[in-house]
Design brief:
It is a multi-pass membrane protein. Keywords: Cell membrane, Membrane, Transmembrane, Transmembrane helix, Transport. GO terms for molecular function: transmembrane transporter activity. Its main location: membrane. The structure is a single chain. By secondary structure, the protein is mainly alpha-helical. The chain has one domain: MFS general substrate transporter like domains (Growth Hormone, Chain: A), CATH 1.20.1250. The chain is 85% helix and 0% strand.
């Protein structure tokens, strides 16, 4: 009995978002579904590399998958504001399930082609354009503002737990049965999150559009709102850099495994799991400190440490050293992402939150096509090691410029205040 109370007290103290019934349904569904998602991620990357042998073409698949987010994310924020988010998520999760089954059928019937993978990646990207900002904005409706950062950290914990388990299972499945089974199991896994969504009962926030406002006016208004707030603007710019240059592991790790380490699917799955272990630890760390709230200094420090880790990843030549460095990289990646996400959601006004999170989706995931193409091109020319180093150096330079810009602006405001 005492252990039961101790467990309840631990959850209440560190994972308070789980005390909300609606959030539990969503979280448990994601625990299953995200494992399938990561199985598909590594299966698709390895399949493309086997079919084409080209790091650039692998980067092109990533570009196709995230290009719609780059093009349409700002419009998605307007849609998210106008419809119940639960209903939107039911549609997007169902579409993602159908796409996974389609890819599984193509591979299992031996009719898959590179062009088909590109088309399915593009369709999944269109679906995710609506899914990502909806999922971000839905959190606050089911846990409230007080437990928002804890919910975001728990979402990261789930995502990265799946990043550990999914690649491990996926690597075994690919080695024994082929990539098609990864896609099939991913399709089945969506049943869990759809079931959870159907059981959520929450009063939705739907913003009423003023008749005088057009879509472009609303988008412009949201962007100007971010630009005028130094905290939001600096966070968005840092997220842009990290999202573009530091999250290209779906391109770089399979290329590094095959071309630099000369290893197969098992090593690839192991390295992806190492990245997940570090990310999982980072998510737990942020969950434990969630009651302290987000801090811009955490995003600043984490962004620079991510850059350093990328450079060291590029200089490594051992499987074990690379695994360790990827774990450290994953840790700081998630510390940065969780803190930045929380900063934006907690500091944005309610009527702007969906639009702010659509911009977040744009710069974090929508910038991936640029990053994937850049990483794929550099890896084609100079190998995965050169791509890791290049991404790390560029990340460091751009983050330092952003930090300097806002520190200088803050100093200028302080001087004006003192003179006044």
């Amino acid at each position: 009995m005492n252990m039961r109370y101790a467990g309840a007290a631990f959850i209440d103290r560190h994972f308070h978002a789980l005390t909300h019934r609606n959030y539990r349904y969503l979280w448990l569904g994601q625990c299953v579904s995200l494992i399938g998602t990561w199985m598909q991620n590594i299966g698709q990357s390895w399949l493309v590399l086997q079919i084409t042998g080209s790091p650039f073409k692998l980067g092109l698949v990533g570009a196709f998958q995230f290009l719609p987010i780059l093009c349409f994310s700002l419009f998605a924020g307007i849609i998210v504001d106008k419809f119940p988010k639960k209903n939107i998520l039911l549609v997007t999760q169902t579409v993602a399930m159908i796409l996974a089954f389609t890819l599984a059928a193509l591979v299992l019937t031996d009719t898959v082609k590179y062009s088909y993978i590109l088309i399915l990646a593009l369709l999944l990207g269109l679906n995710n354009t609506l899914d990502l900002p909806t999922r971000q904005a839905f959190n606050i409706e089911i846990v409230g503002k007080e437990d928002l950062m804890n919910a975001i950290a728990l979402n990261s914990t789930t995502f990265n737990m799946a990043r550990i388990v999914g690649p491990s299972i996926g690597a075994v499945m690919m080695a024994m049965l082929g990539a098609g089974w990864c896609f099939l199991l991913n399709g089945i896994s969506f049943i869990a999150v759809i079931y959870g969504l159907l059981h959520i009962k929450a009063a939705p926030y739907v913003r009423k559009q003023r008749s005088s406002e057009g879509v472009m006016k609303e988008i412009k208004d949201g962007i100007l709102y971010i630009a005028r707030d130094p905290l939001l603007a600096q966070t968005v710019l840092l997220v842009t850099v990290i999202g573009t240059l530091a999250f290209n592991f779906n391109v770089l790790i399979p290329v590094f495994t095959k071309n630099a380490l000369h290893m197969g699917e098992t090593t690839y799955g192991t390295l992806m799991s190492c990245l997940g272990i570090g990310s999982f630890a980072g998510a737990l760390t942020m969950s434990f400190r969630s009651k302290q709230g987000p801090r811009i200094k955490i995003s600043i420090i984490a962004s620079l440490l991510v850059a350093v880790c990328l450079i060291f990843n590029g200089l490594s030549s051992s499987v074990w050293l690379c695994g360790l460095l990827l774990a450290i990289t994953g840790f700081f990646n998630i510390v940065f992402a969780t803190n930045s996400n929380s900063n934006l959601q907690m500091n944005a006004k309610e009527e702007y939150r969906a639009r702010v999170m659509s911009v977040y989706s744009l710069v974090f995931a929508g910038s991936t096509p640029i990053g994937n193409l850049f990483a794929g091109y550099v890896a084609d020319r100079f190998g995965a090691n050169g791509a890791f180093v290049s991404c790390g150096i560029l990340t460091a330079i751009l983050c330092l410029l952003i930090i300097w810009k806002y520190k200088r602006a803050a100093s200028g405001r302080a001087s004006v205040t003192e003179q006044g």
